[in-house]
Every structure is written in C-alpha cells, then in structure tokens.
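Hi everyone,

Forwarding the result from last night's run.
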Amino acid sequence: MTSQCAAAADTSCPEKTYCPADATNFPTDCIPCHDSCLTCSAGDSDKCLTCPDGTFSSNTSCVKCNEKCAKCSGSATNCSECVSGNALNGNECTMCFAGATKNCTCGTAVNCSTCDSGQTKCGICANGNIMAAGVCQTCAGDQPIPCVCDNAKNCLFCGGDIDSCGACFGGFDLNSTPQCSKCKVGFFESSGNPKICTACQPNCSVCDSASTCTSCANGYILGGGACTACTPSQTEACTCGSMPNCTTCDSDSMAKCATCVNNFDPDGASPCQSCLPGFFKSGSAGSETCVACADRNCKTCSVSKDACTECKDGYEITDGKCEKKCTVDDNSCSMNQVCDTICKDCTSNCATCAGMVSTCRSCIAGFVLQGQECQACPDGCANCADNKDVCQICKDNFFIKDGACAACKDNTTEQCQCNVAVHCATCDSGEAVKCGTCVAGYKKAMDDSCSVCVEGYIMMKAICIKCEAKCKTCSQSTDVCDTCEDGHQMTINQTCQANCSELTNGNACVNGSAANCGGLDQITDCKCGAASNCASCDSQNTNKCGACMVGYKLENEVCSTCTDDAEQVGSLCFIRGEAESNKLSGGAVAGIVIAVLLVVGMLVGGIFWYMKKSKAASATEEQSAGMQE
C-alpha cells in the first residue's frame, strides 16, 4: 500500500520517498526519490538530502563509493568502513590477509585477520588474538592455545613488535632463537596439538621423551637414556658445564672438574686438560686420552711414548730412557741390574748378574747358566738341567719324554704341559691353562678339566686306572666288574670269564668249557632253557630253575629277585663282599694247602705212633706171660 502525507512539511513518508510540495491538508501519496537517494527534497526527487551506505553526497546527488568501501564521504575512495573481506587502512580499504595488523571486516565479527568463505565470520584471527568457539578473542595470558603474533610461534601474548612474543606459551624458552622455538633446559617438545614443553626426568637437561635423556645436568652421567650421579671410579666423562674429562664436578662450581678420567690431571689452571706425570696426550680433539709412557719412570715423554723427555726424581735420561741413579753400596738396583752410577739391566736372558751386565749369575726361564752366560734350553723346554740338553719342565703345548720335549698330540698317554691343568693330551687352542683333549682313560668334566674317567676305567686316588681285562666297566676296584666285554659273562664273584659256545640244560660254563651244574667250581649260572640266574635246573622241568645262584631267591621257579642280603648292580644281584671273599689270593691258597698237609701229616704221625705203641704193649704182655709160666 502506498504511503500518504498531508502537506509538504509532513515527515511521515518513508526513506527513498517525499511528500510533494503542492500537497494540501488533504492526504496525498508519497512520491519516490531518485534511486540513488536515501532521502530527497520536497518537490524535487533528484535532489538528494541524504545518501545510503555505499554512496556519498556530491552536489545533491549520491555517488557510489569504491567497491571495497561500505561507507565513504567526500570521494569514492575516502572510506570509513569496508565491505566484508577487506580491512580499513587509514581511509582506504584493502583486501584482508593473514597476519594483518588491522581488523578485517567479516560481517559483525571482530578481531579478524581473514574471513571465512561466507565472509561473515573470522577465518584467521588478527595478531594478539586466539580463535575460541569460532570467535576471535584477545589473548589474556591464560588461554589454552598459542596467541597469533604474525610469524612468531608459541607466543602466550605478543610483544611490542607484533612479530615477536611478549611471553612463551607451554613452557617454551623466550630466549631461544627464534623466540619460543625451543623448550627450556630440562623440558622436551611434545608431539600433540598444540605443542607444549614437558619436563624431562630428574637431572636431565635435554631429552627426546620422558624416558630417553640425551644430555645430563651438571654432576650426572648419561647411560642407557638415564642420568645417574657421577662417581670418581667411573671411566666415562661426567657433565660439568663445558669442561671435558671430568669424573666428578667441583662442589663450589658444578661447571668445573673435581676429579678426572683417563689419567688426566685434576690440578693446575685447567683441571683435567693435561695428563698426569708419566702420561702423554693422544688422540684427536674431543676424544683425547692419556697414554702411559713406555718407561714408568718418565715424568714426561714424547708423542711416540717410547722416548722420555723428563724423568722422575732419582732417575736420569740415558738414550731416551730413565735409569735409576745409584751407588754401589746402596743396593737400590733391581735383582736383574748392576750399579754403574745408574742401574743398568743385565744382558738378555740373565735373571741376575754381578759386577758387569754380561756376567750372569742366574737365568730366566728357558735358559741355563753355562759359565757366565745364559744359553737357551732345547725347543719347547721351560727349564733344563745343568746339562742344557736335558729338559726338566716343558713349555705349554709340549710333553716331556726321556729328557726331551715334544709337541703334544691327541690320542696318547703322554701328559701335555698346559699350565696347571692335568691329564691333558693337548692344550686348549685359545687358553693354554685348559686341556684341549684328555689322555687315555680320561674325559672332560663340565668345567673342561680332564677329571672324569671314560668307560673301562675306575677313579682311584684321583687317577683313572683301567679295569681288569674282560671287564667292560668296574666301580669297586679294577678286578670287580660291573659289566663284561662282549663274548664274556659275569661270575658270582664279579669277574668276567669267556662264554661257552654251546650249553645244554643242566650244564654251566666253567673257564670256557661245559660242566655239570652243582659242582664246587661253578661260578656262572646253570643253563635251564631260557631261565637265568639258576644254580641248578628243576628235576621235573629242566627249562626252569630248581635252585638259584647266590644272591637270588626262587619265586615261582624264577630267579630274578635279589635276596635281602644282596645288592642289585644293574640287572645282577651280588652279596657285597662275597666276591672278594670268593677270590683267594695265591698266598691264601698256598696257606690252605700247607694247612691241609700239616693236618694230614699229623694224622699219619698219630696213627703211626698209635700202632707202634700198641705193638710195644703186646710184646710186654707176652713177656710177662712167659715169666709167669
């Protein structure tokens, strides 16, 4: 519906219309102004009184502002407000860009650096602000994310120069270059968003993570990603500021050394940077070590370490070596030296000498004194007699035989010299104090010593002695067998005798020949079919036992269980001690024979005496009878 007015002075017409000048007191329609006017003069629609946003008044007309201006005055480029996506710079509107120092117009949003795609909200906040819930808010110092400060990163808020930080966010270091780009000492940068600095483990100055330290605080040493307190006994350098070669730090200044590694000298103007007396510096810068002079009596030596340049007190340099000063009477020289103003070493191979260095009194190992000279023992000999060709002790890897030393070899009974190891046939190739292989009768124990007997030998007084012939194994003594060699069988006295080729039921093997069971010389079981351990066969069934050998008891015509007084050895039963008592020595047998002969002699003598006495009595009776007649 068209608006109406009552007179030209009537102000009831809306914007962009006016009340005609000829209007009377009766209502008339409001007439539109020119399209460019916001309001116009009564009676003249082209004469603008005010202009709409985006235009400015020029000679009663409204002219459009620059396309980037939302409001302007006087000219199209004299902007007072900008359209969205542009920022006011003085009286000019320019396109917004990230990091702009002026606020970008984005609808009603404030503190924008750029707009979003709809040009109604902030895309990026202006310097000194943060984006929170889609709105740019001024950094207050307690925000949960870094503040926007142009190219500066990790700012808590901006500095006087908006391209700098006034303080760092999340524990970053304001003094790092660039500002807030690195964590403070003792912190590491997390991988989250936003990045923050998290504390390293205690005593760690630089770390990759909470569990992996890469550099320690003063007074601590790095090992396995962790820092431990330094001690004087360690071999690795302790962190003491920038000082090298420290093992512990000075208690007054943790950036100085108190003790040193690798024989560096803790005293002097620069502790731990020069070597102790008797050592010289070797190696490249940063990895230098102090190496001992070849002569322990050197105070200083050349880089070659073999030539002394200064000696310790009481010594003097002779041909680059430090020789001890002496007098003939002070007995200060070593056993292998003589005094000639300085202590001079005896000639090679002398253990001691007298008067002159070439006058030997005793020799080192492997040499023997011949006159006043030390002459070498034969090859492989460590100690030889006055006759230098007769060896007494061999060197390792040699064995002695008939006074000479020969190289050790495997599969022999000759004992090889292997330091203190015994029963060796050869020495260990890597360690001569151990056996490589053992002599016959021995084998290696768990500790590599030749201290265990092989099968067929028995340990007696720490020596392996071979079991008696025909014994496969023995344990009580060499002649008490536990098992027999092939082709032999066990007897009741634990000896081994040859098997018989064929036996019939009722026969036993006696010394390799078949004999009837039950004889006094039967010491092996009787053949009774497949039955074993029989002393005799059953009278009704010769395939079964009638009686058992000593040590076995008969159960259901079978002899397989030991008697109570017998001991089981493998599958056999023995009455322990019976074997020894059954085995009579030659002396015992001879004694028995002599005893039997004596008994027989006494019996014969007694009978002879009795008969003679009886005959004499008869003669006496006859004589008495004659006299009575």
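The two ends are 216 Å apart (CA to CA).

Cheers,
N.
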